[in-house]
Design a protein that fits this description.
Layout (H helix, E strand, L loop, with lengths): L1 H9 L13 H18 L16 H7 L12 H16 L9 H28 L13 H31 L4 H19 L13 H10 L4 H26 L1 E8 L6 E7 L6 H19 L5 H11 L4 H7 L4 H28 L4 H10 L2 E2 L7 H32 L6 H22 L5 H7 L1
Antiparallel strand pairs: 1-2, 1-3
Helix pairs in contact: 1-5, 2-6, 3-7, 3-10, 4-5, 4-10, 4-13, 5-6, 7-16, 8-9, 9-12, 9-15, 9-16, 10-11, 10-13, 13-15, 14-15, 15-16
């Protein structure tokens, strides 16, 4: 362990700003730089990549903030996978970190960084060696094929490391986190294409964008069923957006008073979605990794691959109902998907609260450091922690269930892009709006201030 800690201290990292408070312009500048770099890296193709069917990775790319076939084919996958593994190990007591102390949190973050680097190379090797992103097949069995495999892994590893450091830059110098930023950027791009693109997808004559497709369908007197399916996607997208905003706005407020100033107090807000979007990101990444494994083993273990695909791919129930070909099998798939997503969100939500300093003890310490106390109770951290347990525990479970259920139903609804991705984007943008309005309302440009108000 000392060797590991010594190695962690030797790892390069993004230096935090020397000043405690960064202006709105400074944060906006770095956020836009990272966002531009993300899109530019997504346009750099992998050298030596053979003809691959990248469409099978379309949904994965939205969830993982990746651009398959480019240098950032791994996206945020290694970062999230490392977080999942470390939280499970810490929760099971196999490895133990005192996340309440600064040194413990530092060790946790350093270990997560080491795991991320491991998964960058591991996932890159899996993609290449399992045939997901491989050199031209006509070179198979030659030295050139092996060389190109090695080159592809190195390129993907380089992209993965860049994403890792870009996430650090965003977390320390920009708004939110790089993980959230990349997911939102990928979903926004996908949604823009699915709404407006006039170009047909491969093997089809119908436009990819729903608006051009509707115009084509109406002008060509297409069957009402086809038009209804297109409209259902738009309606589902709007519904997911509205419900997500409503859930984000729900909160519980705890009345607090200033210990030394009688008659004055505030309300301490606790969001209903207390764990925010983190559990959904972790579960979605877990499902994406499972689905990826199922895709890559299709040639060698077709039966297992088919089972994985069936269980972890949400069926288009709404479209099946419109077409009149819905079956009991689809209901079974939907039930399994909903249960897995909901239970997974609860498990990861409970782990996240403990590791992110959002538990009752940490919140009680933060409240007392601010000179606040709960009216009618003695000013004791143990009492404060006990009272907060009544709120934080139930909010963690109920909020995680609600978000997991909403994410699953969003995927089943047939929205224009990944339902989970759309939900995550709404939550990310809403939380970003709240943070900016809270921290930078008075140092931004007047035009931007009017927009935020």
């Amino acid at each position: 362990m000392p060797f590991v800690q010594q190695f962690m201290h030797m790892m390069p990292e993004v230096s935090p700003p020397s000043q405690k408070w960064l202006s709105f312009k400074e944060k906006l500048k770095w956020t836009l730089i990272i966002l531009a770099a993300f899109f530019i890296l997504g346009m750099i193709p992998l050298f030596g990549l053979g003809p691959s069917s990248l469409q099978r990775f379309e949904l994965l790319s939205v969830i993982l903030g990746a651009e398959f076939g480019s240098i950032i084919s791994l996206g945020i996958g290694p970062i999230v996978t490392a977080s999942i593994v470390l939280q499970l190990l810490n929760g099971a007591g196999i490895v133990k970190f005192d996340t309440h102390s600064p040194e413990g949190r530092k060790n946790f973050q350093g270990t997560q960084k080491l795991l991320t680097i491991f998964f960058i190379f591991f996932e890159g090797a899996i993609y290449v060696l399992m045939g997901g992103l491989s050199p031209p097949p006509e070179l198979a069995g030659t030295g050139a094929f092996l060389t190109l495999q090695f080159v592809l892994i190195l390129q993907m590893a380089l992209g993965g490391v860049l994403i890792m450091f870009m996430d650090e830059v965003t977390s320390k110098w920009g708004f939110g986190s790089g993980i959230s930023l990349f997911i939102a950027a990928g979903v926004a791009k996908s949604l823009f294409i699915r709404i407006l693109s006039p170009f047909p997808s491969e093997g089809s004559e119908v436009a990819t964008g729903v608006i051009p497709a509707l115009i084509q369908s109406v002008s060509s007197s297409a069957p009402p069923t086809e038009i209804l399916i297109l409209l259902s996607g738009v309606i589902a997208t709007v519904l997911v957006f509205c419900v997500a905003v409503y859930v984000q706005a729900m909160r519980v407020e705890i009345p607090l008073s200033f210990g030394r100033i009688r008659g004055h107090g505030i309300r301490w807000p606790l969001a209903f979605a207390y764990t925010s979007n983190i559990p959904v990101i972790l579960v979605a990444a877990l499902i994406a990794n499972i689905t990826l494994i199922g895709t890559l083993i299709k040639g060698k273990l077709p039966a297992l691959s088919s089972l994985i695909t069936t269980l972890f791919s949400p069926p288009a129930i709404l479209q099946a109902m419109i077409k009149g070909n819905i079956s009991l099998t689809m209901f079974g798939q939907a039930a399994f998907y909903i249960i897995f997503m909901t239970v997974g969100c609860v498990i990861f939500g409970m782990f996240w609260v403990q590791t992110a300093g959002m538990d009752s003890r940490s919140q009680a310490k933060q409240i007392m450091n601010a000179g606040l106390q709960i009216p009618g109770f003695r000013n004791d951290p143990r009492i404060m922690e006990h009272v907060l347990d009544r709120y934080i525990g139930p909010l963690t479970i109920m909020g995680s269930i609600a978000i997991g259920l909403l994410a699953a139903l969003a995927d089943l609804s047939g929205a224009l892009t990944s339902g989970t991705g759309l939900l995550l984007t709404v939550m990310i943008v809403y939380r970003l709006y709240q943070d900016i309005a809270k921290q930078h309302m008075y140092d931004m440009h007047p035009t931007m201030r009017k927009f935020m108000e």
